[in-house]
Amino acid sequence: MYSQPVDTRDKLIESTRELLWERGYVGTSPKAIQALSGVGQGSMYHHFSGKPELALAALRRSAELLRAEAERSLLGPGTAVERVTGYLRREREVLRGCRIGRMAQDPEVIADPQLRAPLAETFDWLRETITTVLAEGRSRGEVAPDLVPETTAATVLAVVQGGYVLARSADSAEPFRQAVDGLIALISR
Amino acid sequence: MYSQPVDTRDKLIESTRELLWERGYVGTSPKAIQALSGVGQGSMYHHFSGKPELALAALRRSAELLRAEAERSLLGPGTAVERVTGYLRREREVLRGCRIGRMAQDPEVIADPQLRAPLAETFDWLRETITTVLAEGRSRGEVAPDLVPETTAATVLAVVQGGYVLARSADSAEPFRQAVDGLIALISR
């Protein structure tokens, strides 16, 4: 009796995550969420007040998973350059883009402070984490002494997010790889 | 008699450019284009077969203007690093994002080879142009001899496109500036 609502909630969140990734926020309708999850309209509105609340739950879960994934490379073993390289080169579905970053193009997400929050928090956390990795690496002599950790961390994030944009535009993962290779060469000097 | 159709066509293209930038492709309806342009439905379908053809004309015009803007800094005076810096730092409506790059997040644009073409062509042209600027700069000793023009050019493009994503996520132009500052420091070494 008690596990059923949890499963239904979970199905709704997972279906919303998929639809947001595939179609964006504007392109995702409550009807499509019901169809993909197999959850009826009444049950959906029992668990969530509507699309914004569902999307927020989906974005929060995607942000959590993205963070766990990033931690594996950034907080793992190796020098600062190796860890940042691991983060940049980790396996990605390049042509689908970032589940979080793609939402930034959606005007309705950006106009709603609650929906925008998981985006801002994820990128803040990533920037701070990469800044720490680079600052520690600099103090250990693993990166050049003139490399500025804060701004370089912002550059690392931008290359990933922009790499997705270039890859989707070209319908090829190649521009993503090139942008990452160019950055790794620059920070390895 | 002959100037009227040209004006109407132009109004439709400019209104579509604005709506695509503001709402994306999926979020732009033929009705919204008619409302913003003040052009009636019959007249709209006299000039364009529908939303895809209108969007293509709008994207082609945006690509042309973006290219002219980029040429001013990239093909202007100065060293290679100065020209790339000028391109990265030129005035931009950072929070609105790139008129071309934002379309890459739109599944319907990416799924249509015709609509995707202006995106792919614009980024190809930019990458080739920046590659040439950096290669010439390297041969003149303006950039470090170990800097690879091709991949660095891809990194430059990615930083701009990703900078927009980070700025929109943060509702602040600051992350764009930080990412650009980080990159300029890296290529100036």
Automatic annotation (TrEMBL), chains A, B:
Residues 29-48 bind DNA. Pfam families: TetR_C_13, TetR_N. InterPro entries: Homeodomain-like_sf, HTH_TetR, Tet_transcr_reg_TetR-rel_C_sf, TetR_C. PROSITE patterns: HTH_TETR_2 (PS50977). Keywords: DNA-binding, Transcription, Transcription regulation. One of its GO terms (molecular function) is DNA binding. SUPFAM superfamilies: Homeodomain-like, Tetracyclin repressor-like, C-terminal domain. Residues 6-66 form the HTH tetR-type domain. It comes from the Bacteria. The keyword rRNA-binding does not apply. This is TetR-family transcription regulator. It comes from Kutzneria albida DSM 43870.
